[in-house]
Amino acid sequence: MSDAKPAARKIAAPAVNTETEKFWKAAAEGKLLYGWCLACSEAHYYPRSFCPFCFSDRVEWREASGAATVYSYSIMYRSPTGPYTIAFVELAEGPRILTNIVDCDFEKIAVDAAVKLVWKPSDGGTPVPLFTLG
Amino acid sequence: MSIKGKAYVMGAFEHPTREAPDKSTPQLHAECMRGALADAGLTKDDIDGYFCAGDAPGFGALSMADYLGLRKLSHVDSTETGGSSYILHVGHAAEAIAAGKCSVALITLAGKPRTSPPGGGPRGSGGFAAAPEAGFENPYGGSTHNTYGMCAVRHMHEFGTTSEQLAWIKVAASHHAQWNPHAFLKDVVTVEDVVNSPMIATPLHRLDCCVVTDGGGALIVTSPEVARRLNRPRVKVIGAGEAPKGTYGGKVDLTFSGAAWSGPKAFAEAGVTPTDIKYASIYDSFTITVLMQIEDLGFCAKGKGGAFVADGNLISGVGKLPFNTDGGGLCNNHPTNRGGITKVIEAVRQLRGEAHPKVQVKNCDLAIAHGTGGSLGTRHGSATLILERE
Ligand SMILES: [Zn+2]
Questions:
Q1: CA A51/CA B388 separation, integer angstroms
Q2: What are the two backbone dihedrals, phi and then psi, of residue B347, each rounded to the nearest 5 degrees?
Q3: Residue by residue, what is the 3-state secondary structure of B225-237?
Q4: Quick check: B250 and A45 CB within 8 A?
Q5: Tens digit of pLDDT for each residue in A108-119?
Q6: What is the distance in angstroms between the Cα of B128 and the nearest Cα belonging to chain A?
Q7: Can you tell me the distance from the alpha carbon of B41 to that of A2, in angstroms, rounded to the nearest whole number?
Q8: pTM
Q9: Cα of A49 to ligand 1 centre, how many Å?
Q10: Is-contact A91 A14, C-beta < 8 A?
């Protein structure tokens, strides 16, 4: 028996299409973008070419501060690569986004806990936005 | 146009197999169709409407209708809302029948995730990889377990729901499954058994999760005219509601399910209320699924589901709301990871008085079948069906 830790979970490369290319280019520069509607002044995520609330196409992409709180989470134990935590976090700018919480004591994760943005390389693709406690 | 009283579920068949390594998926569909036709007392050439969903191999309804030899079809519908599809299909079949588009509708589901796990996503251009959300969700390792886990964590946070309360749902299902010779899990379990079983995705333990089984099911929905000439108890469709729910541009709310929308529509159409219901088939992919749907359908106040399901309240002959008397997805069968059709099948058994005597609800004249498909934690289909014994 080896006492080596299981290999870390590989983060699947995100699917990129012409509508979301700009988001992933910004991600490669460490910038997390969200959608902002100039017509109804609502933030949305995931970003898209129109506003999902008022259907205006007067949308622009803005950079999130990276500050967020945990809306909900689940620590996945049925994993060949060791436990990992999936979560919806609520960005300071409003939208709740699906992500992983990494590099921290999972026991300390709680609803409403403060988290901050970190980036991890995906498997053969662009970095993806994740969060950690603190 | 209301569908109330415009159609009847006259055939229902649940495939007895739970492991089918030696059969093809289309073959299982065919065996389910044969079973439902025999149950109704109809033949293949009576079928003029066909309904299937994402589990149907190949080109969906086209491949399957051709394979099954359905030559008299005047209506097809392959609406795909995950495991809720087949409950929704009953409502759609009733609409089609009411509109005169068909008079004998077949609904089939089958698959073999237990012995031959499926690869890839649903059929269609690109499947899950082309979904608009794909890039923003697929890196994160979302599964049914952990996305439903997030619903449970949030429910516990908002309402104080406990793991022990969730466990009661499995306990009730297991009390029913012990009488079902086909049930995949037949052992009666305790609250302690559930909370002491291995953690899968917090806060859901192994016994909070449904079984993975091969198999399938089929339903026959007919016009009133056809129903009256068949020598079978008549189960009337009196209300149906559907309501997909999503993540809404970042405004995801995990505290409720689409049942909060589909349920009231179905109850309003049927002209009945939750207190009138004698038996409830509630989709049980996980214990939390049942808890949220019971609240959202109005069987108790929002947030009070934990107290409602505790102490055996879902056990037939013991509690106020007998549910999933076949053992449900938690213990009996969850064919092809889509339990919706078995929800309708056991409701039909109850209304006909054909459930196992140990779990048959006395004077069962009004039942609900409700299903969730996709993922409760992200986007899901929701379908509610209200059935009445005539
Ligand atoms: Zn807008």
A1: 43
A2: -65, -40
A3: HHHHHCCCCCEEE
A4: yes
A5: 999 999 999 999
A6: 10
A7: 62
A8: 0.96
A9: 11
A10: no
